[in-house]
Amino acid sequence: MPNFAYRGRSNIGALIQGEVDGPSVEAVADILLGRGITPLDISPAQVAKSGPLLNFGGDKIRHEEVMFFSRQLYTLLKAGVPIMRALTGLQESTNNPAMTKMLREVRESLDSGRELSASLGKHPKVFTGFYVSMVRVGELTGRMEEIFLRLFHHLEFEKFMHGQIKSAVRYPIFVILVMSVALIVINFIVIPAFAKVYKSLNTPLPFMTQLLIGFSDLMVAIWPFLLIGIVGGVYGFISFIKTANGRMAWDRFKLRIPIAGKIILKATLARFSRSLALALKSGVPVVQALTVTGQVVDNAYMASRIEKMREGVERGESVLRTAIAAGVFTPVVLQMLAVGEESGALDDLLEEIADAYQRETEYELKTLSAQIEPLLIIFLGVLVLIVALGVFLPIWNLGKAMIH
Q1: Is the pLDDT of residue 49 over 60?
Q2: In whole angstroms, how far apart are CA 217 and each of 188, 345, 385, 395?
């Protein structure tokens, strides 16, 4: 069905513009009049076409924009502004074409009679299942502004966690890259140059020197195959973790990585506790709360364990018993769940768990560099020792021979 762009006036004289699907201009005019809009201009909508050189990758809606969208909606709804006027104002104030397009489509979906949660659910790349479910709860309970405020704090927490993790791994990754470049330079430039000098001496070489020269010759001979192997391995790994089983295995392995595994586990538990507490505080039943919480933990293995919990609760088991059976929760979490179920304050205790693990995660991330630094120093020291012995032992031996 063709798409028409229109401009019109509402019953109070406000200028309104947007797009509507219809078979003809006359049909679109009838649709607008039925909505209380007097059409001023109706014309076929132009479909934007952009080649890859003009718009490589397209505009995207960033996490921060969704976060501030939630905060602004909370403020407008709390002030008594109707949802359509609020969305119109946000659409006119944004500078991101993708955000403008999304808000226009949400308004048109609301115009056609759909609920806000259903309209947001048509954009799964922008709004997660958890976000849409929480908006649906706000529609059912009549506490939309409160839900958007809680969603803002939830998204702010997610942004904080991702920022902390990125800042923590930046230093180790930089050191590893520099060491990799140094190894390439040593094996392809430094050692071959020294090998020519040693070969001209016609003297027996120490074992360490022979080992370094042999390894360097091997790298120089097979580097094209090695490069192909590395690229193929990376491509195969990425393809593997894109599958359901591969993602499950990789996410389970991440929880067991030395040093980093415990940080990932604590961050995941903080995210789980915060999300479940938010859902329960908003009036979501436990079964549905576990369903939507599994969508935001960002770990397929943990999500599968939470799904097992949901199935257990559906069978009538307690949250504590299903959490013990899941086998992924720490004793602290299990104790707090037990107290929360007995006292009827599960949501408050989950908030306390989230706060505690957030503080622990922050501390672990701040000290991550200090924990990894000794390992990097030891590895770098061993590397320098091997290279120094291999390169300078022949020179040392030659000097001793000349002295004698």
Answers
A1: no
A2: 8, 67, 20, 20
* Crossing angle (nearest 10°) for helices 244-254 and 260-281: 110
Asked if residue 193 has pLDDT above 90, the reply is: no
Q: How does 46-77 read in b/e, with b if 16+ C-beta sit within 10 Å?
A: eeeeeeeeeeeeeeebeeebbbbbbbbbbebb
Closest CA to 58 of 91, 98, 95, 102: 98
Tokens for 260, please give them: 């980093």
Q: What residue has token string 């390894």?
A: 215
pLDDT in tens, 305-333: 988 898 898 888 888 899 999 888 888 88
d(CA 260, CA 365): 9
pTM over 0.90: no
| Poorest-pLDDT segment among 50-54, 305-309, 348-352, 400-404 | 50-54
DSSP symbols for 156-204:
HHHHHHHHHHHHHHHHHHHHHHHHHHHHHHIIIIIHHHHHHHHHHHT-P
Write down the residue that tokens 């078979």 correspond to: 23
CA angle, 290 as apex, 286 and 293 as ends, to 5°?
130
Packed helices 368-403 and 144-185: angle between N→C axes, nearest 10 degrees: 0
